[in-house]
Amino acid sequence: MTMRIGTTRLTMAQAVVKFLTQQYTERDGVEQPLIAGVWGIFGHGNVAGIGQALEELKEEVAYHRPQNEQGMVHAAAAYAKMKNRLQTFACTSSIGPGATNMLTGAAMATVNRLPVLLLPGDIFASRRPDPVLQQLEFPLSMDVSVNDAFFPVSRFWDRINRPEQLLASLPEAMRVLTDQAETGAVTICLPQDVQIEAYDYPAAFFEKRVYRVPRIVPPREALERAAAMIRAAEQPLIVAGGGVIYSEATAALSDFADALGIPVTETQAGKGALPWNHAWNAGAVGSNGGLAANRLARDADLVIAIGTRLSDFTSASHTQFQNPDVRFLSINVSARDAHKFGAEPLVGDARATLDTLREMLAASKHRVGAAYGDRVETLKAEWDATVDDIRAVENPADLTQANVIGLVNTASGPRDVVVCAAGSLPGDLLKLWRPVDPKGYHLEYGYSTMGYEIAGGLGAKMADPSREVYVMVGDGSYLMLHTEIVTSLEEGMKLTIVVVDNGGFQCIRNLQMSTGSPPYGNELRYRDPRTGILDGPYIPIDFAANAESLGAVGMRATSEAELRDALERAKQETRTVVIHVPVQKHASVPGFESWWDVPVAEVSTVPSVKEAREEYVEQERNERFYY
User: Fold this and answer.
1) Neighbour count for residue 352 (Cβ, 10 Å)
2) CA 553 – CA 365 distance, rounded (Å)
3) Number of neighbours of residue 604 by Cβ within 10 angstroms
4) Can you give the pLDDT at residue 5?
5) How much is the pTM?
């Protein structure tokens, strides 16, 4: 590298890496690097550019090598989730399949409002070797590559066709990554020839930059309207989303609920905002919710949504809140989310807003009537007893998925983390897992991404190596993306992975049957030569042996005693453990006075489908337009 006065001559790729090392976030006086390192798989399109830069600057930035590009984005997003969106990773890929492998991760991050920086290699900007290896030849334009597919799944997207374009693009990318309302996947496409081109960058471009994350408080007028709504409510209910945890507002939420006598319900992202045994924690709400929360939601006259985007699972497809006079009050950093359901919007930081509201209401000594508190206490006790019953082992030699959840929860410590994403496990975990720490429950359910679990567990462990991480994963999801087990060994990050084996996609089989269709195509079965369909014997898969072949410790547990023993032995291991647990294939946790809108065929010759259609039409009438 040569220097000129006031400038630094670097390749575009070197400038990207150098710039990223100088980006920081700060909140509440705590400063930390925004980019914790770079994940990457080198190949055609990035090895000679970004790869060269990372090697040359290896003393300044850590490089991590995954086994699959999708996995590295999941790990980066999980890390950001654990770090309350104040830190993340950059992810670099080759062009072609290396880039498109990141698409699912990008969608997952953007849907969940989690910051990740994606740096896919791209085709030649010069077009000299057109078409280059792995280039998509789009017939309407020569300026389109597969990286254009990132456009709808990114919060910010750009392509760097000249090295000096970094000067405008990278600061904007950092602004979006650190904006709590706008954050998600940020994609900067890097043509491979431009990566190696040099430019005299201003030296100031590489100076330390701190992006301060403010705690914005809504205007006084809006707060006064909100306080009036709370005073007028007789059956108010809080729905706590992930924003409560990202804002570190859990103590503020506890104080708010205690002071005003308002019960708190949880979304997937918000579970853990209050300990499960907190007096005002009524549990999970919505399609996968519990008895107490759903009954309170049905009758609530005011729903206070905090840090939630009010997805269909939370609202039970707009059927959960049935009080004809229900109103909504929403606290959110995102104006879009704050205005949903016709809510009175409080656009601001969850912690600062809750504290301000509580102080305003304390002046009038407001508290919800005692009878409502008694009802909450009764419902909570009934729900806790129901969870105990569902988790209880009836047949020690033939476990259910609910049994496994209870046993793993009992074996885990108060600061340990459970990670999951897809299948029937998330719904069961939402109802049955009992966290006591805000970071003890780590679910990706905004995109319900099969394959997130192990890579996400790795990201969670990297974010806080002092915590034990339990990855709960179904057999179907394990088969999609289990190779990041190798990365966990590579990084020295021990995970305890519990593979719940129920013979395939039983969650979707149940959903299929709920619409009247016979079971078809969802289980891991051999094709029957007589019928020509996949309804033969179950395929026996030894997940413990598979894990051992990758270098992990494999265990198999077919009973309560064996699982308890395996979980204890896993605590003594220093490398990743995979525990294979076969369970009853068709045992499931029931729903509790809730619904999810899954359309049923309007025309069919199958009688059970016709019956399901009639029921669907009846339930559909309960969907409400909240405004």
Assistant:
1) 18
2) 58
3) 15
4) 66
5) 0.97
* Cβ neighbours around 237 below 10 Å, total: 26
Give whole-number Cα distances, 598 to 312, 510, 616, 620, in Å.
11, 12, 8, 10
Per-residue 3-state assignment (H helix, E strand, C coil) for 231-269: HHCCCEEEEECHHHHHCCCHHHHHHHHHHHCCCEEECCC
> Is residue 294 within 8 Å of residue 263, measured between CB atoms?
no
Q: What is the pLDDT of residues 177-225, one digit of tens each?
A: 999 999 999 999 999 999 999 999 999 999 999 999 999 999 999 999 9
Q: How far apart are CA 280 and CA 376, in angstroms?
A: 7
List pLDDT tens digits, range 507-518: 999 999 999 999
Give residue-wise pLDDT tens across range 530-569. 999 999 999 999 999 999 999 999 999 999 999 999 999 9
Q: Which segments within 244-390 are labelled E, that is strand?
A: 264-266, 281-284, 302-306, 327-332, 344-347
Domains and CATH numbers, the chain: 3-212 (3.40.50.970), 220-383 (3.40.50.1220), 392-503+538-582 (3.40.50.970)
Q: Please name the amino acid found at residue 8.
A: T
SS3 (DSSP) at 372: helix
Cis preceding-peptide flag for 426 (omega within 30 of 0): no
